[in-house]
Design brief:
Structural class: alpha+beta
CATH topology of the largest domain: Beta-Lactamase
Number of helices: 15
Number of domains: 2
Strand content: 5-15%
Number of strands: 5
Helix content: 40-55%
Shape: rod-shaped
Order of helices and strands: HHEHHEEEHHEHHHHHHHHH
CATH architecture of the largest domain: 2-Layer Sandwich
Distance between the termini: 63 Å
């Protein structure tokens, strides 16, 4: 069964998220675990303190820990902000709600620290536990572990709670947006291309509307098979890459060789920053973006020179070079001969 777009498991890579959670736990000195909207853990506990581990394994006390988690999460959802509270052992915990489009998808539970001051004296003990000889004995046996809990001032706890809230919600929201764009892109790729005869041009009155639609779909990661001069030769075959983040850019580049497109536009298509896109692109292709595109266009130019009677000027225009002189210069850089000389050479003239 397909998961909802508001299901945390369908939004993020849980293994990568857990690695991030471990790092956040080390930096904040807090134990952290992530739960879904039902309160069910979706990650392992990061650096759970020895005292809390022992208490959660106790048959009598563990139920109170679960009640604290459940009630803390519900209160955070109700307030729609991080909720700082005290557990049944007066240990500080934080429930941080994660929302997408105002929809609650889960929470990050952090804490297992003791307060260094009385700044949180008005914090609510969310679950009270009746005193009993058994629980008192357990606490006495774990006194040393209790003393080893991290100690923090209240102001630092609040700062950490706000930081975790901003960071976690930003990552989940961005992951959700990227998933939506990839869904739109896959849907667009599933639509059969329109068969347009070679050299046929659309009526002038249709061009503005078509350009507007194409731009909208481009911004969403979708691809259109464009008509006009791009139909001179069939579009290139789809090219797969090892990094799925870059796949929309590679698909766009190889289906739109007749267009001019910038690194920034391709970064937007992949929903990442230009600098990160540039690093990933070099790692994937072994060359920078502009060199890759130039080489691709020259390869297309060679096809046109070999299989059509188009002039050098027409090929230059079709591939969106700024002028024929620049096209000839770039072509010669890659092929050590001019386009005209290449055509004569390939035809044995």
């Amino acid at each position: 069964m397909r998961l909802s777009k508001y299901d945390l498991k369908s939004i993020i890579d849980l293994e990568k998220w857990h690695a991030l959670q471990d790092s956040m736990s080390l930096v904040t000195q807090m134990a952290i675990i992530t739960v879904d909207y039902k309160g069910v853990p979706v990650t392992r506990h990061s650096h759970c303190q020895a005292f809390c581990q022992a208490v959660r394994q106790d048959a009598e006390l563990s139920s109170y820990c679960q009640k604290c988690d459940a009630r803390g999460g519900l209160e955070a959802v109700r307030l729609n902000e991080p909720y700082v509270y005290l557990c049944h052992f007066n240990i500080l915990d934080i429930a941080i709600p994660i929302t997408v489009d105002n929809q609650y998808v889960g929470a990050v539970m952090a804490g297992q620290v003791r307060l260094a001051d009385n700044g949180g004296s008005r914090l609510e003990q969310i679950v009270t536990r009746p005193a009993s000889p058994e629980s008192a004995g357990t606490f006495a046996a774990l006194r040393q572990e209790y003393e080893q809990l991290p100690v923090m001032p209240y102001d630092q706890v609040v700062t950490i709670a706000e930081m975790l809230s901003h960071l976690c919600n930003y990552i989940v929201e961005e992951a959700s947006r990227k998933n939506e764009i990839m869904d739109l892109y896959r849907q667009a790729m599933a639509v059969p291309p329109v068969d347009i005869l070679p050299h046929m041009r659309l009526a002038d009155s249709a061009c503005p509307a078509l350009q507007e639609v194409q731009q909208e779909l481009s911004d969403s990661g979708a691809l259109l098979e464009s008509g006009g001069e791009s139909s001179i030769l069939p579009a290139s075959q789809a090219v797969s890459c090892s990094n799925p983040t870059l796949q929309p850019a590679f698909d766009y580049i190889h289906s739109r060789e007749h267009e001019n497109f910038s690194l920034e536009a391709m970064a937007r298509l992949c929903h990442i920053s230009p600098s990160y896109f540039s690093r990933l692109f070099v790692r994937e292709s072994g060359e920078n973006f502009s060199a890759y595109v130039s080489r691709l266009k020259i390869g297309r130019a060679k096809q046109l020179l070999e299989t059509t009677g188009l002039s050098v000027n027409q090929i230059s225009d079709h591939l969106s070079f700024c002028d024929a002189g620049y096209f000839i210069k770039i072509f010669k850089k890659y092929e050590q001969r001019t386009p005209a000389a290449y055509r004569s050479w390939i035809r044995g003239e």
